[in-house]
Amino acid sequence: MRYKIQLLSQAKDDVREARNYYNTVVPQLGKRFINDFRMVLEKIENNPFIYGSRIEEFRTANLKTFPYQLQYIIEEANEKL
Asked: The dihedral of CA 36, 37, 38, 44: what is its sign?
């Protein structure tokens, strides 16, 4: 079962800002950052319980290459019978 990920608008802005910053450091580095970010999102979609919680219900996933963390919560869907 895949979980649906919803990014806050502030998180989207942070990702764009990081991508733009990395592109100013080295051309195409921003693309590598986005690929790393998407890889972690895919892991969370497939198994959100893979990463532990550090503060209350917030879980933290580190990107593989970049010093960036994704913090998220798991909201169980209410299914209608």
From this structure: positive
Q: CA torsion sign, 11 to 15 to 20 to 21?
A: positive
Could you give the CA distance from residue 77 to residue 63 in angstroms, rounded to a whole number?
Answer: 27
Query: Which residues partner with 59 through β-bridges?
Result: 53, 72
**Integer Cα distance of 81 and 26 in angstroms:** 53
The 10 Å Cβ neighbour count of residue 70 is: 19
According to the model, what pLDDT value does residue 19 have? Answer: 98
Angle of CA points 48, 36, 21, to nearest 5°: 125
Q: Per DSSP, what are the bridge partners of residue 64?
A: none
**pTM assigned to the model:** 0.84
